[in-house]
Amino acid sequence: MELESGADPRAKGDEKSTFTSSTIEHETSHQTPTGIPVSRKICYAIGGMPYQMTSNAKGFFMQIFLLDVVQMSPFYVSFILFLGRAWDAITDPLVGYAVSKSGQTRIGKLIPWIVFTTPFGVLSYVMLWFVPQETMSSSVSFSWYFIWSCLFDTFMSCYHVPYSSLNMFLGGDQRERDSATGYRMGMEVFATLAGAAIQGQIVGVYHAKRAQFCSLQNSSEIPGNMSRLTDSLQNTRTAYVIAAVVLGVLYFLCCVVLFLGVKEQLAPLSTLGRIHLPYVTGMKKVVGHMPYVRLVFGFFFSSVAFQMSQGNLALFCTHAAGLGSYFQHLVLILLTSATFSIPLWQMMLVRLGKKTTIFIGLMTEIPALAIISGAKSSLPLFIVMSIIAGASLASLFLLPWSMLPDAVDDFKVKNPSCMDLEPMFYSCYVFFNKFGGGLALGISTLSLSFAGYKPGACHHNPEVITTLKVLFAPVPICLLLIGLVFFYFYPINEKRRQEIKAELQKAM
Protein backbone atom coordinates (compact mmCIF):
# COMPACT_ATOMS: atom_id res chain seq x y z
CA MET A 1 0.00 0.00 0.00
CA GLU A 2 1.17 3.50 -0.70
CA LEU A 3 1.70 5.98 2.07
CA GLU A 4 -0.82 8.81 1.91
CA SER A 5 0.48 12.33 2.28
CA GLY A 6 -0.38 14.16 5.48
CA ALA A 7 -0.07 17.62 6.96
CA ASP A 8 3.11 19.62 6.52
CA PRO A 9 5.34 19.67 9.58
CA ARG A 10 5.51 23.20 10.96
CA ALA A 11 8.20 24.74 13.06
CA LYS A 12 7.17 25.22 16.68
CA GLY A 13 9.04 25.93 19.89
CA ASP A 14 11.75 24.07 21.71
CA GLU A 15 9.25 21.56 23.06
CA LYS A 16 8.21 20.49 19.58
CA SER A 17 9.65 17.59 17.70
CA THR A 18 12.08 17.85 14.86
CA PHE A 19 11.29 16.10 11.66
CA THR A 20 13.82 14.12 9.65
CA SER A 21 14.61 15.20 6.13
CA SER A 22 13.40 11.91 4.67
CA THR A 23 9.98 12.41 6.22
CA ILE A 24 9.79 16.01 5.02
CA GLU A 25 10.51 14.82 1.49
CA HIS A 26 7.86 12.13 1.82
CA GLU A 27 5.12 14.28 3.38
CA THR A 28 4.97 17.51 1.46
CA SER A 29 1.34 18.21 0.75
CA HIS A 30 -1.34 19.60 3.02
CA GLN A 31 -4.44 17.43 2.76
CA THR A 32 -7.57 16.70 4.70
CA PRO A 33 -7.43 13.14 6.04
CA THR A 34 -9.15 10.67 3.75
CA GLY A 35 -10.78 7.39 4.72
CA ILE A 36 -8.67 4.47 5.89
CA PRO A 37 -8.77 1.62 3.34
CA VAL A 38 -10.43 -1.54 4.62
CA SER A 39 -7.33 -3.57 3.74
CA ARG A 40 -5.22 -1.35 6.00
CA LYS A 41 -7.74 -1.67 8.84
CA ILE A 42 -7.67 -5.46 8.53
CA CYS A 43 -3.88 -5.65 8.46
CA TYR A 44 -3.71 -3.29 11.44
CA ALA A 45 -6.27 -5.41 13.31
CA ILE A 46 -4.34 -8.62 12.62
CA GLY A 47 -1.27 -6.97 14.14
CA GLY A 48 -3.06 -6.80 17.49
CA MET A 49 -3.63 -10.54 17.72
CA PRO A 50 -0.27 -11.62 19.25
CA TYR A 51 -0.73 -9.58 22.41
CA GLN A 52 -4.21 -10.91 23.11
CA MET A 53 -3.40 -14.52 22.18
CA THR A 54 -0.43 -14.69 24.52
CA SER A 55 -1.62 -12.48 27.37
CA ASN A 56 -4.98 -14.22 27.66
CA ALA A 57 -3.43 -17.67 27.43
CA LYS A 58 -1.29 -16.54 30.36
CA GLY A 59 -4.28 -15.03 32.11
CA PHE A 60 -6.43 -18.15 31.88
CA PHE A 61 -3.77 -20.84 32.31
CA MET A 62 -0.58 -19.53 33.95
CA GLN A 63 -1.92 -19.73 37.49
CA ILE A 64 -3.19 -23.29 37.20
CA PHE A 65 -0.07 -24.25 35.17
CA LEU A 66 2.29 -23.14 37.93
CA LEU A 67 0.13 -24.51 40.74
CA ASP A 68 -1.03 -27.88 39.41
CA VAL A 69 1.37 -28.71 36.54
CA VAL A 70 4.69 -27.29 37.75
CA GLN A 71 3.34 -27.82 41.29
CA MET A 72 4.97 -24.69 42.67
CA SER A 73 4.10 -23.26 46.06
CA PRO A 74 1.26 -20.68 45.93
CA PHE A 75 3.53 -18.22 47.73
CA TYR A 76 6.12 -18.34 44.93
CA VAL A 77 3.40 -18.31 42.27
CA SER A 78 1.92 -15.13 43.73
CA PHE A 79 5.31 -13.43 43.52
CA ILE A 80 5.85 -14.53 39.91
CA LEU A 81 2.42 -13.34 38.84
CA PHE A 82 2.57 -10.03 40.69
CA LEU A 83 6.24 -9.09 40.32
CA GLY A 84 6.27 -10.26 36.71
CA ARG A 85 3.32 -8.03 35.88
CA ALA A 86 4.79 -5.19 37.95
CA TRP A 87 7.99 -5.43 35.91
CA ASP A 88 5.93 -5.56 32.74
CA ALA A 89 3.98 -2.49 33.80
CA ILE A 90 7.13 -0.54 34.70
CA THR A 91 8.71 -1.21 31.31
CA ASP A 92 5.72 0.19 29.39
CA PRO A 93 6.25 3.90 30.17
CA LEU A 94 9.99 3.46 29.60
CA VAL A 95 9.39 1.80 26.25
CA GLY A 96 6.86 4.53 25.41
CA TYR A 97 9.47 7.20 26.10
CA ALA A 98 12.12 5.30 24.13
CA VAL A 99 9.75 5.03 21.17
CA SER A 100 8.99 8.76 21.40
CA LYS A 101 12.71 9.54 21.40
CA SER A 102 13.45 7.31 18.42
CA GLY A 103 13.69 8.82 14.98
CA GLN A 104 12.29 7.98 11.57
CA THR A 105 13.64 5.07 9.54
CA ARG A 106 12.88 3.94 6.02
CA ILE A 107 10.04 1.76 7.35
CA GLY A 108 8.75 4.30 9.86
CA LYS A 109 9.19 5.18 13.51
CA LEU A 110 6.85 2.73 15.27
CA ILE A 111 6.95 -0.35 13.03
CA PRO A 112 10.70 -1.08 13.48
CA TRP A 113 10.10 -1.63 17.20
CA ILE A 114 7.39 -4.14 16.37
CA VAL A 115 9.37 -6.03 13.74
CA PHE A 116 12.78 -6.33 15.39
CA THR A 117 11.53 -7.48 18.80
CA THR A 118 9.13 -10.14 17.51
CA PRO A 119 11.65 -13.06 17.24
CA PHE A 120 12.79 -12.49 20.84
CA GLY A 121 9.18 -12.29 22.03
CA VAL A 122 8.33 -15.60 20.36
CA LEU A 123 11.35 -17.37 21.89
CA SER A 124 10.73 -16.10 25.41
CA TYR A 125 7.03 -17.05 25.21
CA VAL A 126 7.85 -20.66 24.35
CA MET A 127 10.42 -20.89 27.14
CA LEU A 128 7.87 -19.54 29.62
CA TRP A 129 5.85 -22.77 29.29
CA PHE A 130 8.81 -25.15 29.25
CA VAL A 131 9.61 -27.30 32.31
CA PRO A 132 13.39 -27.93 32.17
CA GLN A 133 13.39 -30.76 34.73
CA GLU A 134 10.86 -33.09 36.26
CA THR A 135 11.80 -31.82 39.71
CA MET A 136 13.35 -28.45 40.51
CA SER A 137 14.04 -26.76 43.81
CA SER A 138 11.69 -23.95 44.72
CA SER A 139 14.34 -21.28 44.17
CA VAL A 140 15.39 -22.63 40.75
CA SER A 141 11.79 -23.02 39.63
CA PHE A 142 10.94 -19.50 40.79
CA SER A 143 13.99 -18.01 39.05
CA TRP A 144 13.30 -19.84 35.79
CA TYR A 145 9.71 -18.72 35.38
CA PHE A 146 10.25 -15.23 36.78
CA ILE A 147 13.15 -14.48 34.40
CA TRP A 148 11.35 -15.78 31.32
CA SER A 149 8.17 -13.99 32.34
CA CYS A 150 10.04 -10.68 32.64
CA LEU A 151 11.84 -11.19 29.32
CA PHE A 152 8.64 -12.03 27.46
CA ASP A 153 6.76 -9.10 28.96
CA THR A 154 9.59 -6.73 28.05
CA PHE A 155 9.63 -7.81 24.41
CA MET A 156 5.84 -7.73 24.28
CA SER A 157 5.93 -4.14 25.59
CA CYS A 158 8.29 -3.27 22.74
CA TYR A 159 5.67 -4.73 20.39
CA HIS A 160 2.41 -3.58 21.95
CA VAL A 161 3.23 0.03 22.94
CA PRO A 162 4.18 1.17 19.41
CA TYR A 163 1.39 -0.96 17.96
CA SER A 164 -1.22 0.73 20.18
CA SER A 165 0.18 4.16 19.26
CA LEU A 166 -0.10 3.27 15.59
CA ASN A 167 -3.87 3.85 15.83
CA MET A 168 -3.19 7.59 15.78
CA PHE A 169 -1.19 7.29 12.55
CA LEU A 170 -3.40 5.23 10.25
CA GLY A 171 -4.86 8.28 8.49
CA GLY A 172 -8.51 9.34 8.49
CA ASP A 173 -10.57 11.27 11.02
CA GLN A 174 -12.07 10.30 14.39
CA ARG A 175 -14.83 8.16 12.87
CA GLU A 176 -12.33 6.29 10.70
CA ARG A 177 -10.06 5.68 13.69
CA ASP A 178 -13.04 4.39 15.68
CA SER A 179 -13.81 2.06 12.80
CA ALA A 180 -10.20 0.83 12.76
CA THR A 181 -10.43 0.29 16.52
CA GLY A 182 -13.58 -1.76 15.96
CA TYR A 183 -11.74 -3.94 13.44
CA ARG A 184 -8.83 -4.26 15.85
CA MET A 185 -10.95 -5.22 18.85
CA GLY A 186 -12.98 -7.69 16.83
CA MET A 187 -9.75 -9.36 15.72
CA GLU A 188 -8.26 -9.19 19.21
CA VAL A 189 -11.28 -10.86 20.77
CA PHE A 190 -11.05 -13.51 18.07
CA ALA A 191 -7.36 -13.86 18.93
CA THR A 192 -8.27 -14.30 22.58
CA LEU A 193 -10.70 -17.02 21.52
CA ALA A 194 -8.08 -18.65 19.30
CA GLY A 195 -5.42 -18.52 22.01
CA ALA A 196 -7.72 -19.99 24.63
CA ALA A 197 -8.99 -22.62 22.17
CA ILE A 198 -5.51 -23.73 21.15
CA GLN A 199 -4.17 -23.75 24.69
CA GLY A 200 -7.36 -25.14 26.24
CA GLN A 201 -7.99 -27.94 23.80
CA ILE A 202 -4.35 -29.10 23.82
CA VAL A 203 -3.95 -29.10 27.60
CA GLY A 204 -7.59 -29.61 28.60
CA VAL A 205 -7.26 -33.40 28.34
CA TYR A 206 -5.03 -33.42 31.40
CA HIS A 207 -7.39 -31.36 33.48
CA ALA A 208 -10.26 -33.65 32.51
CA LYS A 209 -8.25 -36.73 33.49
CA ARG A 210 -7.31 -35.09 36.76
CA ALA A 211 -10.95 -34.38 37.56
CA GLN A 212 -11.79 -38.00 36.73
CA PHE A 213 -9.00 -39.25 39.01
CA CYS A 214 -10.21 -37.10 41.89
CA SER A 215 -13.74 -38.43 41.46
CA LEU A 216 -12.36 -42.00 41.81
CA GLN A 217 -10.13 -41.17 44.75
CA ASN A 218 -11.87 -43.61 47.09
CA SER A 219 -12.04 -46.49 44.59
CA SER A 220 -9.79 -49.56 44.46
CA GLU A 221 -8.32 -48.37 41.16
CA ILE A 222 -6.22 -45.66 42.82
CA PRO A 223 -2.75 -47.23 42.25
CA GLY A 224 -3.37 -47.60 38.52
CA ASN A 225 -4.92 -44.17 38.38
CA MET A 226 -1.93 -42.64 40.15
CA SER A 227 0.41 -44.11 37.55
CA ARG A 228 -1.76 -42.85 34.70
CA LEU A 229 -2.01 -39.43 36.35
CA THR A 230 1.79 -39.19 36.57
CA ASP A 231 2.13 -40.08 32.88
CA SER A 232 -0.59 -37.58 32.05
CA LEU A 233 1.29 -34.86 33.94
CA GLN A 234 4.38 -35.40 31.78
CA ASN A 235 2.27 -35.38 28.63
CA THR A 236 0.60 -32.18 29.76
CA ARG A 237 3.91 -30.42 30.25
CA THR A 238 4.75 -31.35 26.67
CA ALA A 239 1.32 -30.17 25.55
CA TYR A 240 1.86 -26.73 27.08
CA VAL A 241 5.07 -26.36 25.07
CA ILE A 242 3.34 -27.46 21.85
CA ALA A 243 0.58 -24.92 22.45
CA ALA A 244 3.19 -22.22 23.06
CA VAL A 245 4.98 -23.07 19.78
CA VAL A 246 1.71 -22.88 17.84
CA LEU A 247 0.88 -19.47 19.34
CA GLY A 248 4.46 -18.33 18.73
CA VAL A 249 4.18 -19.15 15.02
CA LEU A 250 0.89 -17.23 14.79
CA TYR A 251 2.55 -14.32 16.65
CA PHE A 252 5.27 -14.16 13.98
CA LEU A 253 2.84 -14.40 11.05
CA CYS A 254 0.65 -11.61 12.41
CA CYS A 255 3.71 -9.37 12.67
CA VAL A 256 4.53 -10.07 9.01
CA VAL A 257 0.99 -9.11 7.93
CA LEU A 258 1.18 -5.86 9.91
CA PHE A 259 4.56 -4.98 8.41
CA LEU A 260 3.41 -5.62 4.84
CA GLY A 261 -0.02 -4.02 5.11
CA VAL A 262 0.34 -0.87 7.26
CA LYS A 263 2.35 2.29 6.65
CA GLU A 264 2.53 5.17 9.12
CA GLN A 265 0.59 8.35 8.27
CA LEU A 266 0.93 11.80 9.76
CA ALA A 267 -1.81 12.98 12.15
CA PRO A 268 -2.92 16.55 12.96
CA LEU A 269 -0.51 18.24 15.39
CA SER A 270 1.84 15.25 15.16
CA THR A 271 5.02 14.84 13.13
CA LEU A 272 6.26 11.35 14.06
CA GLY A 273 9.53 13.02 14.97
CA ARG A 274 11.72 12.84 18.07
CA ILE A 275 10.50 14.51 21.23
CA HIS A 276 12.88 16.80 23.12
CA LEU A 277 11.07 16.81 26.45
CA PRO A 278 12.82 15.06 29.35
CA TYR A 279 11.10 11.89 30.54
CA VAL A 280 9.82 13.38 33.81
CA THR A 281 8.50 16.50 32.07
CA GLY A 282 6.70 14.40 29.47
CA MET A 283 5.14 12.19 32.14
CA LYS A 284 3.95 15.25 34.07
CA LYS A 285 2.25 16.50 30.93
CA VAL A 286 0.56 13.15 30.38
CA VAL A 287 -0.65 12.51 33.94
CA GLY A 288 -1.68 16.14 34.34
CA HIS A 289 -4.38 15.85 31.69
CA MET A 290 -7.50 15.22 33.75
CA PRO A 291 -9.74 13.55 31.09
CA TYR A 292 -6.95 11.07 30.47
CA VAL A 293 -6.47 10.40 34.19
CA ARG A 294 -10.16 9.67 34.75
CA LEU A 295 -10.27 7.43 31.71
CA VAL A 296 -7.16 5.55 32.87
CA PHE A 297 -8.53 4.88 36.35
CA GLY A 298 -11.91 3.81 35.00
CA PHE A 299 -10.12 1.37 32.72
CA PHE A 300 -7.78 0.26 35.53
CA PHE A 301 -10.48 -0.75 38.02
CA SER A 302 -12.64 -2.37 35.34
CA SER A 303 -9.68 -4.27 33.94
CA VAL A 304 -8.63 -5.51 37.39
CA ALA A 305 -12.17 -6.76 37.95
CA PHE A 306 -12.27 -8.73 34.72
CA GLN A 307 -8.75 -10.09 35.10
CA MET A 308 -9.40 -11.23 38.66
CA SER A 309 -12.43 -13.23 37.50
CA GLN A 310 -10.54 -14.49 34.47
CA GLY A 311 -7.49 -15.57 36.45
CA ASN A 312 -9.56 -17.50 38.98
CA LEU A 313 -12.01 -19.08 36.52
CA ALA A 314 -10.06 -22.33 36.07
CA LEU A 315 -9.54 -22.81 39.81
CA PHE A 316 -13.13 -21.80 40.60
CA CYS A 317 -14.59 -24.28 38.11
CA THR A 318 -12.20 -27.03 39.22
CA HIS A 319 -12.38 -26.73 43.00
CA ALA A 320 -15.48 -24.68 43.88
CA ALA A 321 -18.03 -25.48 41.18
CA GLY A 322 -17.07 -29.08 40.43
CA LEU A 323 -16.87 -28.37 36.69
CA GLY A 324 -13.14 -28.92 36.17
CA SER A 325 -13.80 -31.12 33.12
CA TYR A 326 -15.71 -28.31 31.42
CA PHE A 327 -13.88 -25.09 32.22
CA GLN A 328 -11.98 -24.95 28.91
CA HIS A 329 -15.32 -25.25 27.12
CA LEU A 330 -16.80 -22.47 29.26
CA VAL A 331 -13.83 -20.30 28.32
CA LEU A 332 -14.51 -20.93 24.63
CA ILE A 333 -18.20 -20.10 25.06
CA LEU A 334 -17.35 -16.88 26.90
CA LEU A 335 -14.84 -15.76 24.26
CA THR A 336 -17.08 -16.76 21.35
CA SER A 337 -19.79 -14.58 22.85
CA ALA A 338 -17.29 -11.73 23.18
CA THR A 339 -16.21 -12.11 19.55
CA PHE A 340 -19.75 -11.87 18.19
CA SER A 341 -20.63 -9.00 20.54
CA ILE A 342 -18.02 -6.56 19.21
CA PRO A 343 -20.17 -5.42 16.23
CA LEU A 344 -23.10 -4.89 18.59
CA TRP A 345 -21.10 -2.59 20.85
CA GLN A 346 -19.65 -0.78 17.83
CA MET A 347 -23.17 -0.10 16.57
CA MET A 348 -24.32 1.07 20.00
CA LEU A 349 -21.23 3.26 20.28
CA VAL A 350 -22.23 5.14 17.13
CA ARG A 351 -25.88 5.53 18.15
CA LEU A 352 -25.69 6.12 21.90
CA GLY A 353 -22.20 7.51 22.42
CA LYS A 354 -19.20 5.95 24.11
CA LYS A 355 -19.95 6.85 27.74
CA THR A 356 -23.49 5.47 27.66
CA THR A 357 -22.39 2.31 25.88
CA ILE A 358 -19.60 1.50 28.31
CA PHE A 359 -21.99 1.84 31.26
CA ILE A 360 -24.40 -0.62 29.65
CA GLY A 361 -21.59 -3.02 28.78
CA LEU A 362 -19.86 -3.12 32.16
CA MET A 363 -23.07 -3.28 34.17
CA THR A 364 -23.99 -6.47 32.30
CA GLU A 365 -21.09 -8.30 33.98
CA ILE A 366 -22.36 -7.78 37.53
CA PRO A 367 -25.43 -10.10 37.51
CA ALA A 368 -23.49 -12.73 35.53
CA LEU A 369 -20.74 -12.91 38.17
CA ALA A 370 -23.21 -12.87 41.05
CA ILE A 371 -25.28 -15.74 39.64
CA ILE A 372 -22.28 -17.91 38.75
CA SER A 373 -20.75 -17.46 42.19
CA GLY A 374 -23.95 -18.08 44.15
CA ALA A 375 -25.58 -20.81 42.07
CA LYS A 376 -25.06 -24.52 42.46
CA SER A 377 -22.97 -26.43 39.94
CA SER A 378 -25.36 -26.25 36.99
CA LEU A 379 -23.63 -26.50 33.62
CA PRO A 380 -26.55 -25.03 31.58
CA LEU A 381 -26.72 -22.02 33.92
CA PHE A 382 -22.94 -21.54 33.72
CA ILE A 383 -23.17 -21.61 29.91
CA VAL A 384 -25.85 -18.90 29.82
CA MET A 385 -23.99 -16.69 32.27
CA SER A 386 -20.73 -17.22 30.35
CA ILE A 387 -22.46 -15.90 27.23
CA ILE A 388 -23.58 -12.77 29.12
CA ALA A 389 -20.14 -12.30 30.70
CA GLY A 390 -18.53 -12.64 27.27
CA ALA A 391 -20.71 -9.89 25.85
CA SER A 392 -19.67 -7.64 28.72
CA LEU A 393 -16.00 -8.52 28.18
CA ALA A 394 -16.33 -7.34 24.58
CA SER A 395 -17.35 -3.88 25.78
CA LEU A 396 -14.17 -3.68 27.89
CA PHE A 397 -12.12 -4.66 24.84
CA LEU A 398 -13.68 -2.02 22.61
CA LEU A 399 -14.88 1.04 24.51
CA PRO A 400 -11.86 2.17 26.61
CA TRP A 401 -9.53 1.79 23.62
CA SER A 402 -11.98 3.70 21.46
CA MET A 403 -12.15 6.49 24.04
CA LEU A 404 -8.37 6.85 24.40
CA PRO A 405 -7.73 8.62 21.04
CA ASP A 406 -10.34 11.23 22.02
CA ALA A 407 -8.46 11.98 25.25
CA VAL A 408 -5.18 12.26 23.32
CA ASP A 409 -6.77 14.59 20.75
CA ASP A 410 -8.18 16.70 23.60
CA PHE A 411 -4.67 17.03 25.01
CA LYS A 412 -3.24 18.04 21.63
CA VAL A 413 -5.74 20.84 21.03
CA LYS A 414 -5.17 22.14 24.57
CA ASN A 415 -1.37 21.81 24.37
CA PRO A 416 -0.41 22.49 20.75
CA SER A 417 3.23 23.05 21.69
CA CYS A 418 3.60 19.48 23.04
CA MET A 419 3.83 17.20 20.05
CA ASP A 420 4.49 13.47 19.50
CA LEU A 421 3.62 12.30 23.02
CA GLU A 422 1.21 9.63 21.72
CA PRO A 423 3.48 6.68 22.64
CA MET A 424 3.68 7.94 26.22
CA PHE A 425 -0.12 8.22 26.47
CA TYR A 426 -0.58 4.71 25.15
CA SER A 427 2.24 3.23 27.22
CA CYS A 428 0.76 4.58 30.46
CA TYR A 429 -2.61 3.16 29.44
CA VAL A 430 -1.02 -0.24 28.89
CA PHE A 431 0.92 0.17 32.15
CA PHE A 432 -2.23 0.42 34.27
CA ASN A 433 -3.88 -2.45 32.44
CA LYS A 434 -0.91 -4.77 33.00
CA PHE A 435 -0.24 -3.60 36.54
CA GLY A 436 -3.89 -4.22 37.35
CA GLY A 437 -3.63 -7.74 35.96
CA GLY A 438 -0.54 -8.47 38.04
CA LEU A 439 -2.20 -7.03 41.11
CA ALA A 440 -5.31 -9.16 40.55
CA LEU A 441 -3.41 -12.42 40.08
CA GLY A 442 -0.87 -11.71 42.81
CA ILE A 443 -3.51 -10.90 45.41
CA SER A 444 -5.59 -13.89 44.33
CA THR A 445 -2.77 -16.41 44.62
CA LEU A 446 -1.47 -14.94 47.88
CA SER A 447 -4.99 -15.11 49.32
CA LEU A 448 -5.22 -18.77 48.33
CA SER A 449 -1.86 -19.40 49.99
CA PHE A 450 -3.09 -17.87 53.26
CA ALA A 451 -6.31 -19.90 52.97
CA GLY A 452 -4.28 -23.14 52.80
CA TYR A 453 -4.32 -24.04 49.10
CA LYS A 454 -2.24 -27.19 48.43
CA PRO A 455 -0.82 -27.60 44.90
CA GLY A 456 -1.91 -30.83 43.25
CA ALA A 457 -4.54 -31.66 45.86
CA CYS A 458 -7.94 -32.95 44.74
CA HIS A 459 -9.90 -31.45 47.62
CA HIS A 460 -9.39 -28.31 49.65
CA ASN A 461 -10.59 -26.98 52.98
CA PRO A 462 -13.71 -24.76 53.17
CA GLU A 463 -11.56 -21.63 53.58
CA VAL A 464 -10.04 -22.18 50.11
CA ILE A 465 -13.46 -22.67 48.52
CA THR A 466 -14.81 -19.54 50.19
CA THR A 467 -11.76 -17.56 49.09
CA LEU A 468 -12.23 -18.68 45.49
CA LYS A 469 -15.88 -17.61 45.53
CA VAL A 470 -15.04 -14.19 47.00
CA LEU A 471 -12.23 -13.62 44.50
CA PHE A 472 -14.40 -14.68 41.59
CA ALA A 473 -17.41 -12.42 42.15
CA PRO A 474 -17.77 -10.03 45.15
CA VAL A 475 -14.35 -8.40 44.80
CA PRO A 476 -14.62 -7.91 40.99
CA ILE A 477 -18.12 -6.48 41.35
CA CYS A 478 -16.87 -3.86 43.82
CA LEU A 479 -14.00 -2.98 41.50
CA LEU A 480 -16.37 -2.63 38.55
CA LEU A 481 -18.53 -0.18 40.49
CA ILE A 482 -15.47 1.94 41.31
CA GLY A 483 -14.48 1.93 37.65
CA LEU A 484 -17.96 3.08 36.64
CA VAL A 485 -17.67 6.06 38.99
CA PHE A 486 -14.52 7.22 37.15
CA PHE A 487 -16.19 6.72 33.77
CA TYR A 488 -19.14 8.80 35.01
CA PHE A 489 -16.84 11.77 35.65
CA TYR A 490 -14.97 11.35 32.34
CA PRO A 491 -15.68 14.72 30.67
CA ILE A 492 -15.44 13.92 26.94
CA ASN A 493 -18.96 13.31 25.69
CA GLU A 494 -20.22 13.35 22.11
CA LYS A 495 -20.56 17.14 22.09
CA ARG A 496 -16.97 17.59 23.22
CA ARG A 497 -15.80 15.07 20.63
CA GLN A 498 -17.29 17.17 17.84
CA GLU A 499 -15.61 20.28 19.24
CA ILE A 500 -12.25 18.49 19.29
CA LYS A 501 -12.77 17.32 15.72
CA ALA A 502 -13.45 20.89 14.56
CA GLU A 503 -10.38 22.25 16.37
CA LEU A 504 -8.15 19.58 14.81
CA GLN A 505 -9.44 20.42 11.34
CA LYS A 506 -8.58 24.09 11.91
CA ALA A 507 -5.06 23.12 13.01
CA MET A 508 -4.31 21.14 9.85
TrEMBL record:
Family: Belongs to the major facilitator superfamily.
Identification of the protein by name: Sodium-dependent lysophosphatidylcholine symporter 1-like
InterPro entries membership: MFS_2 (IPR039672), MFS_trans_sf (IPR036259)
Keywords: Cell membrane, Membrane, Transmembrane, Transmembrane helix, Transport
Cited Pfam families: MFS_2
Membrane topology of the entry: Multi-pass membrane protein
Residue ranges, compositional bias (Basic and acidic residues): 7-17
CC per GO annotation: plasma membrane
Source organism superkingdom: Eukaryota
TM segment ranges: 60-83, 110-130, 142-161, 182-202, 239-262, 292-314, 326-345, 357-375, 381-404, 425-451, 471-490
Main subcellular location of this protein, as a coarse class: membrane
Molecular function GO labels: symporter activity
Segments of this protein annotated with the region Disordered: 1-34
Compartment(s): Cell membrane
GO BP annotation list: carbohydrate transport
